[in-house]
Amino acid sequence: MCVSTCLLGATKHGLLDTDLVSINIGARNDNKQSQKEKIVVADKTLTLDQFRTLRKDNWWVAPLLVVVGLGGFAIYATWAALQNAHYYYEPYLSPFYSPCIADNCTHVTLPLIGSWWNLSPAFLILWIPGGFRATCYYYRKAYYRSFFLSPPACAVRDAGKSYSGETRFPFLFQNLHRYFFYLSLVILVFLWWDALLAFKFPDGIGMGVGTIVLCINAALLTIFSLSCNSCRHICGGYLNSFHSAPGKYKTWSFITRLNEMHMEYAWVSLIWVALTDLYVRLLSMGAITDLRFF
Ligand code: FES
């Protein structure tokens, strides 16, 4: 536990009312030291256990936004996958169903799964991008804070009494992130293929709003994937020295620059992929019409 350290950090950054607060770490004379840490607030001495936080700012806004954003996306994606309909409007295929690999697809991309599969074909695919995002280092921080309150924010006490990190089931599976990254690259190839096919209309080559939507979707997901920490590691981060690998240094430097905006790419690509599905869905349902440029 770093309660004292975090409190001190929050005080230093002006998050606490420093006129009213002082912290007494006390002597570290036994392993129950943290229980004995005292804090003085408005002339009253209390133990740190009596506080969830002393922060005065709106620290809860960020975790709340993540709950709304990630929760909303999870609900929408599950609903869209369960529909098993309105995911194709020629020539646009929803990314939630791409590649479509079962015989029961409205538009089969690759017939890998036979007719025995009678559930929504989205379930054959969504576990890959879902697993990729669920094990992402950024998303882990975001949902540990927002959904598990572990901790909700810096200098705010964990909701749980104990903390085991990622050493136990099911969190051990977070170590599979690199393999989800590899699988996501395969999905990306198909998304670019879909973007290319989005120029091929029944009456010939053309371009509609949907074409642009699918191209942006593939581009955003590519940038998000390339900015991944695992990608950065694979592209040179594993080396102890770049001295004899200038090519890898250049690649690693490029990925590092992308990585600095990983959180932003994560959110923009997440929202856009949902909007792309929604656009194709509304076209297929006849709720809107696609604007053709040529
Ligand atoms: S996708 Fe976020 S760290 Fe890999």
Structure overview:
By secondary structure, the protein is mainly alpha-helical. The protein folds into two domains: 3-50, no CATH class; 61-285, no CATH class. It contains ten helices and seven strands. It has helices at 3-12, 33-36, 61-83, 127-134, 137-146, 177-197, 209-226, 229-237, 246-259, 262-285; strands at residues 21-24, 38-41, 44-47, 88-89, 92-93, 200-201, 204-205. Helix 6 runs antiparallel to helix 7 (209-226) and helix 8 packs antiparallel against helix 9 (246-259). The protein is globular, with a radius of gyration of 24 Å. The chain binds FE2/S2 (inorganic) cluster. The site of FE2/S2 (inorganic) cluster has 10 residues, from helix 5, helix 6 and helix 8.
Structural class: mainly alpha
Q: Separation of termini?
A: 62 Å
What is the gyration radius calculated from CA atoms?
24 Å
Number of domain units = 2
Low-confidence stretches: 1-31
Mean pLDDT: 88
Fraction of residues in β-strands: 5-15%
The main pleated sheet reads as: 3 strands, antiparallel
Order of SSEs: HEHEEHEEHHHEEHHHH
**Count of separate DSSP helical elements:** 10
The proportion of residues forming helix, as a percent range, comes to 40-55%
Q: How many strands in all?
A: 7
What binds here, in terms of ligands, is: FE2/S2 (inorganic) cluster
Shape: globular
Can you list the strand order of the major beta sheet? 1-2-3
